[in-house]
Amino acid sequence: MSDPLLEVRGIDVFYGDFQALFGVLLCVNAGEVVTVIGANGAGKSTLLKSIAGLMPLGRGDILFDGARISAAAAFDVVKRGIALVPEGRRLFPSLTVEENLLIGGQSRRPGPWTLKRVYELFPVLAERRRLPAPALSGGQQQMAAIARALMSNPRLLLCDEISLGLAPIVVRDIYARLPAIVAEGLSLIVVEQDIAQALKAARQVYCLQEGRIALQGQAGELTRESISAAYFGV
Amino acid sequence: MQWGNVIIQGVLIGGLYAMFAAGLSLIFGVMRLVNIAHGDLIVLAAYVALMVRQALGIDPLTSLILVTPIMAAIGYALQRGLLNRTLGDDLLPPLLVTFGLSVIIQNGLLELFTADSRRLQAGAIEIQTFQVAEGLWIGVLPFIQFAVAVIVIAALQSLFYRTPLGRAFRATSDDQAVAQLMGLDTRHVFAMAMALSLAVIAIAGVFLAVRANFDPAIGPARLIFGFEAVIIGGLGNMWGTLAGGIILGVSQAIGAQIDPGWQLLAGHIVFLAILAVRPQGLFPKVSG
């Protein structure tokens, strides 16, 4: 088997004196969808931020496509092909929808994702491209945040809590488009509290509990009991 | 026609104030940095123009071809080398550091050029005028100065809303962390904003030096005029800044007409009145 696309090797991450991650190990192969589940405060978002270069590592290493990216700044990480869809969408409120997408393409990596392609994936964004980003509904903002990340033509897309604050029907609609993204050869790490949704989307599942990997396995092979135990720590 | 003349002079000087203000407003908007050394940098630009003029013998307005990139380069280096290190959650470090910078620039200029007041001679253009109506005359130089101010403001406005660099400025101003996730090196974006601010300062500095005498100590008063124009116009709107500069200029001109001692006071009073009634300024942030 070829080398994994992303390797997280035993990372410790701190917020001041507070340790958020303890020796976390994680692997993503090319074209694979990996889900990280866990309760609030388990360290899921911290893990994604560390991979994206927004958090310095206390210990451990992160390798992307065989190269060490542990010390790379966030703007450099995205140029190497990792894009993060941040928790809470965080579109730029002063920019229109289209400007948000264009700034996502700032790094000018070559690849299949252009304005035209992301508008095909999310047609509602094309209709609303001239509106300021805050004028979109929550679900549309989430679509815009995903589209903005795709514009950098990443090889690995990190999605932080896509379902947060959205109606179930909207969440299903967004998840229904993930296969089209994977079909372009992208790998995904999806962080979710919505376990049912997450398990449907992924092949590999990691469960974080208080900053440690409590469970890891193939989505189809894990039992409901083992996931509950790892999720709630009971 | 006397009052008509007064108001026109006020409007024309308002263009200069708007240029003082535009650079200040730009960097506050992009990086929340209040540049206390802004006025002294305007004076520095005037001295750079003086040196260029002495070295090459070219007229002041032509010297802008050199002074503008020199000041922009100084701005970029200043931001990358010093000011980026002061930025963070706390507003105090950049205030203190730019205050220190202000003291250093003033004393450096004093050492190099003494306290003698200087003037950039622009030649015959300084005294040329044209008549717009019976009894209403406009100086060619103040008119050029105002026209340049309008062009500078229009250029900044379209740069902000129509170019990738402007998009990067607005995105970084909205959310620094996410801007980095888009591949923007915020240290570079900030340095570009400071370079642009100092390019505008260069233009303002040259017009200031042609219009009146200058010496190393006049920077802080220019900073105050710039601040007042920004606050009157409302932050984040370049056309508002131009309006702010004009209101300040007209207030000063009217004050001076009533009594020469009231020139500055009238400007400050109008500024205070607007601040009291509309703290967000007359034309707060608009998009597009």
Write the layout of secondary structure elements.
The complex is a heterodimer of chains A (234) and B (288).
Chain A lengths: L5 E10 L2 E11 L4 E5 L6 H9 L6 E6 L2 E2 L5 H7 L1 E4 L11 H8 L10 H7 L1 H5 L10 H13 L5 E5 L7 H8 L2 H5 L4 E6 L2 H7 L2 E6 L2 E7 L5 H9 L2
Parallel strand pairs in A: 3-8, 3-9, 6-7, 7-8
Antiparallel strand pairs in A: 1-2, 1-4, 4-5, 9-10
Helix pairs in contact in A: 3-6
Chain B lengths: L1 H30 L6 H19 L3 H22 L10 H22 L15 E5 L2 E4 H23 L1 H11 L1 H6 L4 H26 L7 H15 L4 H21 L4 H15 L11
Antiparallel strand pairs in B: 1-2
Helix pairs in contact in B: 1-5, 1-8, 1-9, 1-10, 2-3, 2-4, 2-8, 2-9, 3-8, 5-6, 5-8, 5-10, 6-8, 9-10, 9-11, 10-11
Listing every helix as H and every strand as E from the N terminus to the C terminus, the arrangement of chain B reads: HHHHEEHHHHHHH
How many whole angstroms does the radius of gyration of chain B measure? 19 Å
Q: Number of helical runs of chain B?
A: 11
Give the SSE order of chain A as H and E letters.
EEEHEEHEHHHHEHHEHEEH
Helix count of chain A? 10
What is the helix content of chain B? over 70%
Shape of chain B: globular
Number of strands of chain B: 2
Quick summary:
Chain A is of the alpha/beta class.
In words, what does this structure look like?
The complex is a heterodimer of chains A (234) and B (288). Chain A is of the alpha/beta class. Helices cover 33% and strands 26% of the residues of chain A. Chain A has helices spanning 44-52, 74-80, 97-104, 115-121, 123-127, 138-150, 168-175, 178-182, 195-201, 224-232; strands at 6-15, 18-28, 33-37, 59-64, 67-68, 82-85, 156-160, 187-192, 204-209, 212-218. Chain A has a 6-stranded mixed beta sheet, with helices on both faces. The mean pLDDT of chain A is 91. Chain B is 73% helix and 3% strand. Chain B has helices at 2-31, 38-56, 60-81, 92-113, 140-162, 164-174, 176-181, 186-211, 219-233, 238-258, 263-277; strands spanning 129-133, 136-139. In chain B, 50% of the residues are buried. The A-B interface holds A 52-54, 73-75, 78-79, 83-84, 86, 90, 92-95, 99, 102-104, 106-107, 132, 148, 152 and B 164, 167-168, 170-171, 173-175, 177-186, 287.
